[in-house]
Every structure is written in structure tokens, then in C-alpha cells.
Amino acid sequence: MEKESATPKSDYGDFVLDAIFAVDTQGICVSVTGACERIFGYTAEEMVGKCMLDMVHPDDLGRTLQSIDRVMTGYLQRYFENRYIRKDGKVAYISWSATWSEDHQLRIGVARDITERKYDDHQLVARELLPEGPSYWQLSASPRRLIAPDGAIIALSHQDHIVLLTLMTGGESVTRRAIVEALGEDFLEYDQRRLDTQMRRLRNKVKEVCSTPLPVSTLRSVGYRFYEATKILR
């Protein structure tokens, strides 16, 4: 006698973490598979025909549109985070990876609900808790993260945090030597290309999740400058 499967095939969907969407050039969902109902509260049948932007949290709409524009030009988007309004009215934090299929004229996106992780890691930043008045970039040491003026959160490595802390506290200009020594390295023996790579990686990390580019300018033959208002969180 054939042994009965421990888990019926019809129940496999309960274990799928992601929902995979195909969206046309007008932003209309044409197909969805995976954990659609668990993430958004809508069945797959209810999602097909909906404009995805209609469900985006209003405060995240601007940078979501910017992300879509990048994807439509061929950019492979990874780990873009925004908020959606579920069918029950609750807010879900979603992490997206997306790409554009020229052959099919469809944007393919993979969505994962990260709301629980946000709460567990104390990463949620309510807009009413953001500084009033001037827009601040906030740097937190515990947990290590950069908070953009629009509330977007960028997780940082230990090295990322040191570099940004040095830039934010260094005044109008921060020399390459100051950054290298803050990293605990010997400036004369340090390969300068490593610092260039570090800055490029930081800029790309911010670009993936934030509507505003990292406000760091390169000062030729000197170093760098963080040119917007900052706040250091301990």
C-alpha cells in the first residue's frame, strides 16, 4: 500500500513565504502565485486586475514610483521595502525584488512580508517619531542602521557604521586618512581602492531602499563630506 503523504499537496501554499506577481506596464496585476492571501489579505483571484499602486501606503508612493521607474529601465531591484494596506486595513511591510521582462512586457516582483521581523528587531520608525523641522539622517549604533528622512531604514555593517559616524561628525570635510584611521587601519599601507569600493557600496545600499540618494559628496584630493543634517542615536 502506498504510504500517504504527511502533508496534502493542497496545503503546501501555507508554507510559501513569498508571493510572485506579474504586473503590466499600467501597474495592473495580471497573475500572482504563492502567499498572496497570507501577505495582502486578498486571494489571488481578487488581486488579478487590481492596480498595485492603489494598495501602496500613501507615504511610500513617491519612492515606490521611483523604484518602478528604475526597474522599467532594466535595473534589477533587490530588497526594496515599502508598506501596503492589506484588505483588512492593516499595514504590511513588504520586501520586494523585481525585474522587467522585455519579452513579456511585464514587471515580475517577488514580495515577502517582513512586518514581524520589523517589530522583532525594533526597526519600525513611526513617522510621528521622526524629527520635526529640518530633515535629518539618523545613525543608530544599536541596532546599527541608517534612517533616512522619509523613514526608510538601511541596515549597516560594523564597517558601514564607522564610516558614516566619521562622516557625520567630521564637519565640512573628512579626509581619507581620518576614515581609514577610524577603521583601525594604517593609512600608508591601506589600499585606497578599498575605500572607494566601500563608499560605492554604501551609496548603492541606500539607493535600493530609499527615495533619496546618500548625501555624501566626494571632495577631490581631500576626502568626503556628508552635506545634509544628521542626528546620532546612541
UniProtKB/TrEMBL annotation:
EC nos: 2.7.13.3
Keyword terms of this UniProt record: DNA-binding, Kinase, Phosphoprotein, Transferase
Domain PAC: 78-126
SUPFAM superfamilies: C-terminal effector domain of the bipartite response regulators, PYP-like sensor domain (PAS domain)
Pfam families linked: PAS_3, Trans_reg_C
Primary enzyme class: transferase
Domain spans labelled PAS: 18-75
Domain of life according to the entry: Bacteria
Protein name from the UniProt record: histidine kinase
Organism: Herminiimonas aquatilis
Phylogenetic classification of the source organism: Bacteria, Pseudomonadati, Pseudomonadota, Betaproteobacteria, Burkholderiales
